[in-house]
Design goal:
320 residues; alpha+beta; two-stranded antiparallel ribbon; 8 strands; 62% helix; elongated
């Protein structure tokens, strides 16, 4: 008797819950259907806005160069000396290396991404206006038009209005942030090849900057190694004058020979760190913006927002 009563109560509760769920779903779709005009209107507004925004964006072009790490012919000498005279060198207080140092190619990549290199690059090539104030690129005469609210090209003067501590002319910190957005340096882990890419409104500027980047990084790394080799040679010459031990003098002379090889290798080779496999070209096709994707995302955003507005409005009225 009790089992029959409990069963009937459970069935009644289930019967009461199930219709409520069905009513909620029907109500939800009914509210959306009733508000279809508002949903269509809001979605259409967002779609039109996305199209207008996409069409107003200027085309950007990407120029890429493929590089290979240059062979370090002078790198084996110090390792051989470390194996042959490592014990004697350590007694003399000289470190011949041979340990796992930073790879020169990876160091060059990090230098290219550094603030110091970017600042020197922008200042040496005088590209601050092309980096920070370009409004559009004219295809017909291959000229750049600058934003008159930022830069007066006729007087070569910055006229932008900013609050302190910023100045009309952008600082190198501001320029570095923008520079990092348009410059990309990536290394393939499997092949070791390095890709340098530059994106700009002008395809000719993008190609020029890519070539300049390769030239400058080779020059910077060459100057670093040559300066270090000269300093090392001077130090070793002083050490030779201070010791009379034949074996240590032999080590020092061989070290000077290796430093001389480093200097010779740098002087006769322009592509010191990177060899150009595929040079940067003037791109014919745009890299951005992705106008179709902008339109689709804008339309979807408008549709979702419209549905949310209709549902929120319904439930607010229902609560009231």
């Amino acid at each position: 008797m009790n089992k029959d009563i409990n069963k009937s109560i459970t069935d009644a509760q289930f019967a009461n819950v199930q219709p409520d769920d069905e009513i909620d779903l029907r109500e939800l779709f009914s509210v959306i259907w009733q508000g279809k005009r508002l949903i269509i209107a809001i979605t259409a507004v967002f779609a039109v806005g996305a199209v207008v925004f996409a069409l107003s964006q200027q085309n950007t072009y990407k120029s890429e160069a493929l590089l290979a790490p240059a062979s370090e012919e002078q790198g084996g000498g110090l390792s051989a000396l470390a194996g042959q005279f490592g014990g004697l060198a350590s007694m003399a207080g000289i470190n011949l290396g041979g340990g796992g140092g930073v790879d020169k190619t990876q160091m060059a990549i990090e230098v290219m991404k550094s603030r110091q290199f970017a600042s020197q690059f922008i200042q040496n090539h005088q590209i601050l206006a092309d980096l920070m104030a370009v409004e559009k690129w004219n295809l017909n005469n291959n000229s750049i038009q600058y934003d008159p609210e930022l830069y007066d090209s006729s007087q070569n003067k910055w006229v932008r209005e900013v609050k302190a501590p910023f100045k009309p002319e952008p600082s190198m910190q501001e320029a570095y942030k923008e520079f990092s957005k348009v410059i990309s340096v990536n290394s393939a882990k499997d092949t070791g090849m390095v890709t340098v890419s530059v994106e700009h409104m002008s395809p000719y500027v993008a190609q020029q900057w890519a070539n300049w980047l390769i030239e400058d990084i080779n020059k910077v790394m060459k100057e670093r190694d040559v300066t270090e080799a000269h300093r090392s040679s001077e130090f070793l010459q002083n050490q030779i004058a201070k010791t009379n031990v034949a074996d240590i003098r032999t080590i020092l002379y061989q070290l000077i020979e290796e430093q001389t090889k480093t200097i010779m290798f740098a002087e006769v080779r322009d592509e010191y760190v990177f060899k150009t496999i595929d040079p940067a070209l003037v791109p014919e096709e745009k890299a951005g913006p992705k106008r179709a994707l902008i339109c689709v995302l804008g339309t979807l955003l408008g549709g979702m927002l419209a549905v949310m507005i209709v549902l929120i409005r319904h439930f607010v009225r229902k609560e009231e």
